[in-house]
Amino acid sequence: MLYLPKSTEFNKRIPKQKFYENLSTTPAFKIEMKDAVRVIYWRNKIAVSTINLEKGKNVTEIEVFEIQLNRPQLDEGVLRQIDKEIPYHILFLLVYNNRYQAWIGYKEAVVSSGNAFKVGGYYHTEWLAEDKLHLRVEGLNIDAVYENFVRQIAGDKLLNVQGETLEEAIDRSEKKIQLEKQIEKLTVKRQREKQLNRQVEMNMEIKRLRKELEEL
Fold first, then answer.
1. pTM for the full predicted model
2. Which of 11, 101, 135, 148 reaches 20 to 30 Å from 123, CA-CA?
3. 150-172 burial code (b ≥16 CB/10 A, e <16)
4. What percent of the chain is predicted at pLDDT more than 70?
5. How far apart are CA 167 and CA 112, in angstroms?
6. Of 64, 59, 68, which Cα lies nearest the Cα of 11?
């Protein structure tokens, strides 16, 4: 599943209560943790001290958290809250009925806010059997390993354009998602519109958005 050296293994169970006590959580977070999450393990720590890699400029450590679930869905907000407040990059493995999903969010430090992080959109694999989920450590430093984890998990959602940075690829991906949502919303609105002139205006706007989407 994860081709990580034994030197990175941590395998420490983290009580759910630790997240309630140590993070700035909301009531919704606590309810979702109690209802959806069965147990959490800190499986691996990828750092200069545990693996033969050079230090990253933006990523100092990658933690691997395994979250075993009571049901096959977990509110993304739970991952986001954990990600925002733990000052390291995190690869999440969700487990339900012996099937696995890998989740990762593009995470950047907020320069003006100490250890605070901003997390963009999340990418995840399908539910897979353990022997079908293949994630490899690729790169000479921890920045590169993290970038390759994101690209492996995102798959076709992130086009690999030569010379494009991960940040640029994610920015383009998120713009595409926003344009698709705008087109969908406007299409529904057009179908309900009674006035012909408004329908024509909406058609023109939909065409403009589709052209912008194609250019991305």
1. 0.82
2. 11
3. bbbbbeeebeeeeeeebeebbee
4. 95
5. 19
6. 64
Length of the chain: 216
The pLDDT assigned to 54 comes to 94
Both tokens of residue 39? 């147990």
DSSP conformational letter for 72: S
* Residues in contact with 194: Cβ distance below 8 Å, sequence separation at least 6, in sequence order: none
DSSP 100-128: EEEEEEEEEE-GGGTT-EEEEEEEE---E
Closest Cα to residue 2, out of 106, 146, 153, 137? Answer: 137
Render pLDDT for 96-150 as a digit per residue (tens, 0 to 9).
Answer: 999 999 999 988 877 655 567 888 889 999 999 999 999 999 999 999 999 999 9
Q: Name which of 140, 148, 189 is nearest 203 in CA terms.
A: 189
DSSP designation for 55:
P
Six token digits for residue 133 = 């989920």
